[in-house]
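Sharing in case it's useful to others searching the archive later.

Someone asked me privately for the predicted structure of Trafficking protein particle complex subunit 2-like protein, so I'm posting the question and my answer publicly. Question first, with the sequence:
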Amino acid sequence: MAQLVITKALSKTDYANKQAHVELAERMKQRDAGSAPALGDRVAYVIIKGGKGVAAYDKSEDPLYVLENNIPIDTKYYLDNQLSKPLLRIFEPILGDKAESLLAGDHTRTIQVSTPSVGGLMRFAVRTATCLGCKTPLKKGESAVCANCKGRAPELYQKQQNIVNDLEVRFSRLWTQCQRCQGSLHQEVLCTSKDCPIFYMRKKVQKEIQDSTTTLDRFNNPLYIKNFNPSHPDLKYHYIAHTSCDVMEERAAMKAQDMYLGVLFSMEDLSVYGYMTNTKVKFITVLTVPDVIIKDLDMKNVFRRIHTAYVNHTSNPFYDIDSQKMIKSKKFEQEIEAIGRGRALEGGNRSSVPPAAHGP
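And my answer, the predicted structure tokens:
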């Protein structure tokens, strides 16, 4: 992506002809005035695919927005305007008139285009979940694999887990490289340099991790995740909740009553607690490690309140318990908010309680 970025200074807004960077700055201002480029800033942009006859200034877009939404790049624009002439100058002395055949022909007809998530017909598209094995549309109640591929579920789960692991290693290496660049391995990376190839690689891998983790979560279908600690990214708790489900399955084997499973595992600054109902609904709570010891009785009370809120929500006759959809009830949100804030007040500012409910 960094090799395709064009950067121009926003020196004025009243050009005689429309300019790509000026039009983009105006669109970014409409999206978020706080983060939009101001007069005197340099505007980085790439050219994206557009309809036939659309001017280049209408196809300019913020590189980060393109990465986050899988918007396809206008490869023909870059080939015709930035690559063709230098390539022809290099190969003409060798190939003569045949040099132009490098840029046209059968070998140029196969291209890969990512599916955008915004704009065009995508606003009218209906997403359908497909089986991770055979890609057939899933029926109601199926979250990861169809009935025919159920026997392959462990294999598909391990395959997806390996993908997530590889992406996490890649992200860690890129993150460390950015930390070394800023001169500290113990602070958050604040760099937003849109001229750096590592910056875009890091953002791209971060997006891929989120997508891959979402796919992985289909095996343990999260129904609700709440983060009470804004200093920790949601993705961190998302991953912890998913990892905890495997530990809970091991501990809860051969038992059929409501269970408080205690501390599942601990990290440097976090402790993870688990609770499972007799219908195999899992509740996971992550606490930042405080200076005082947290009693099991207190945690049991927290889980009972979360369980009660869940039961009250599912008792609604209009709620489809087999829908596999995330819980978006305002009343349920308020009850979880009250539980989390109450726990935070008891333990001071040191505690955060992001509960996660997972389907069976």
